[in-house]
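Appendix B, Record 12. Input sequence as logged:
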Amino acid sequence: MKPTELYILNQPEPYRSMLLHIVSVVEHALPNVTLEFKWGIPYFYYKKKPLCYLNASHKHQYVDVGFARGFQLTQNTAFLIADKGRNTVKSLRYRSLYEIDNEVLIAVLAEAQNLY
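Logged structural output:
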């Protein structure tokens, strides 16, 4: 089994369901991305460059979809979170499967892809 699959499948619920859903949405919306395991987490690459990562934060109880060029995103900014100390990354955060708005996720993915 690939490291990305192990990372996702070894997560307890609700993280596993959220991660599986997000991976499905990303792969459907952006068929040209590749899912790799970098820096200990699943990372989607587009044109061999980092696009976004998935991180299950058990401490803070959310799944983070962090965008490598997040500060260049101009749409859906009300949904994007910028933590202190992160200079380039903005993320979508989900605490349950029901919080995931596929339309917003797909729109942010499309905009992020257009930055490359």
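The helical segments are 3-9, 15-29, 102-114.
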